[in-house]
């Protein structure tokens, strides 16, 4: 029998975890290799980013239409290719606004709560802020996230283009249940209309399931500060795990009823054309999903150690496992979650890999606590067809060429 290969898999991986580090030995007692201290700029009212760091979203119109005049934009996407950790910086939370951002005065803002309830109420923001609050870290995802890849994969897209319509924040506000109790309960209601105060009059019918009653929040803060106007100031609905469109911004009305209200947003807009040509309504949950954020579209890798990093999330609950394939989906290895996975929140994963220099595809696949496994594209398309536009959650493949160019691909 011949001896074992010179570098076993375990040692190779250990080497790859540190081989990217360019460490140099320090002299015994000297700071000679460390830059000198610097005098500081005056303190300020806000902490701005370093001038050496550039981060921004990209405003876009419909899929495939870019660059876009900001006036025509309906989406502005999170730059996942340059973020780390699991929480999205406040100013980089993705934005989707159908009729611009209204400039609402919180002193004048009102929330009407009425319909099939024991009594109707008009609430001020002071009323709402005086109520008991909850805070929850959870993702918000537009149903349009991933729509770039329904039919074809544009090889010039970055992960910001393909997956930038999801973000994770800590949201603070009043439990929906508290407001329902305040109007005396809604025993005969099965649906709730939520309506925004923007020009588009976005309004959605929300089924009053146990889950929604227990988890719904009338949110007035994001990451510890008042909502920003783009995200619904002074008040929005927040429904963890469900399609972003339901989380109505600039919330002005909740109306209870015993059937869906059939607004144009659920008859024309947020319906899904299925493979057989029939439309599906009220597909509300965001499915288990994941994406490798580095290396990703339009990046370049060199042969040798490569740290693979990405994000996973599911509208069904916690992520329990993320696997990564570095051979286009033929074989899989468990990735490491870098923080505790919270229910219905994004969690980061990492895996160390050594790229030998041959063309391949890198892919991630997530599993949630309900044992939903993110499907590969073939299985996903077999189930949904290609007529649809929303709720794309198939595995994302990044192809790596012999030169190390990383490109968006269908598989
Ligand atoms: N009133 C109102 N609510 C709205 C929208 C809107 O245009 N108007 N956009 C919806 C959509 S489609 C999504 S995905 C989320 C986006 O929230 P964000 O901009 O805070 O990320 O808000 C939803 N709520
Ligand atoms: Mo959306």
TrEMBL record:
Record flagged with keyword Oxidoreductase: yes
Moybdenum cofactor oxidoreductase dimerisation domain span: 286-391
Coiled coil feature spans: none
Domain Oxidoreductase molybdopterin-binding: 98-265
Region spans: Disordered: 18-48
Signal peptide: 1-28
UniProt keywords, alphabetically: Metal-binding, Molybdenum, Oxidoreductase, Signal
Biased composition, class Low complexity, residue ranges: 18-28
Domain of life of the native organism: Bacteria
Cofactor(s) required for function per UniProt: Mo-molybdopterin
Keyword Glycoprotein in record: no
InterPro entries per record: Ig_E-set, MoCF_OxRdtse_dimer, Mopterin_OxRdtase_euk, OxRdtase_Mopterin-bd_dom, OxRdtase_Mopterin-bd_sf, Sulfite_DH_SoxC, TAT_signal
Enzyme Commission numbers on file: 1.8.2.1
PANTHER family (UniProt xref): SULFITE OXIDASE, MITOCHONDRIAL, SULFITE REDUCTASE
Name of this chain's protein: Sulfite dehydrogenase
Source species: Belnapia arida
Gene that specifies this protein: soxC
């Amino acid at each position: 029998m011949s001896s074992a290969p010179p570098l076993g898999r375990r040692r190779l991986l250990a080497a790859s975890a540190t081989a990217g580090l360019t460490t140099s030995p320090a002299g015994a007692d000297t700071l000679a290799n460390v830059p000198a201290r610097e005098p500081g700029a005056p303190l300020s009212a806000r902490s701005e980013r370093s001038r050496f760091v550039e981060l921004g979203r990209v405003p876009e119109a419909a899929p495939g239409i870019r660059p876009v005049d900001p006036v025509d934009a309906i989406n502005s996407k999170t730059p996942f290719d340059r973020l780390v950790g699991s929480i999205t910086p406040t100013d980089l939370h993705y934005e989707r606004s159908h009729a611009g951002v209204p400039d609402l005065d919180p002193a004048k803002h009102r929330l009407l709560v009425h319909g099939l309830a024991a009594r109707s109420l008009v609430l001020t923001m002071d009323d709402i802020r005086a109520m008991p609050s909850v805070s929850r870290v959870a993702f918000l995802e537009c149903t349009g996230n991933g729509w770039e890849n329904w039919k074809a994969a544009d090889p010039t897209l970055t992960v910001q283009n393909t997956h930038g319509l999801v973000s994770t924040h800590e949201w603070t506000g009043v439990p929906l249940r508290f407001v329902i109790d305040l109007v005396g309960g809604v025993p005969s209601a099965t649906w709730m209309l939520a309506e925004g105060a923007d020009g588009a009059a976005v309004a959605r019918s929300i089924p009053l399931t146990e889950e929604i009653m227990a988890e719904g929040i009338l949110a007035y803060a994001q990451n510890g500060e008042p909502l920003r106007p783009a995200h619904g100031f002074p008040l929005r609905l927040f429904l963890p795990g469900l399609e972003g469109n339901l989380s109505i911004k600039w919330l002005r009305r909740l109306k209870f009823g015993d059937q869906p209200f059939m607004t144009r947003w659920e008859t024309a807009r947020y319906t899904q054309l299925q493979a057989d040509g029939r439309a599906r309504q009220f597909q509300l949950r965001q499915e288990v999903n994941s994406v490798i954020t580095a290396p990703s579209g339009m990046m370049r890798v060199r042969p040798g150690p490569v740290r693979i990093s990405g994000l996973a999330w599911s509208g069904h609950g916690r992520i329990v496992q993320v696997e990564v394939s570095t051979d286009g989906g033929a074989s899989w290895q468990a990735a490491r979650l870098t923080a505790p996975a919270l229910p219905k929140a994004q969690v980061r994963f990492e895996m160390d890999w050594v790229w030998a220099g041959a063309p391949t595809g890198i892919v991630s696949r997530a599993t949630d606590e309900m044992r939903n496994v993110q499907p590969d594209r073939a299985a996903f398309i077999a189930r949904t067809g290609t007529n649809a536009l929303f709720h794309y959650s198939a595995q994302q493949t990044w192809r790596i060429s012999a030169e190390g160019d990383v490109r968006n691909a269908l598989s």
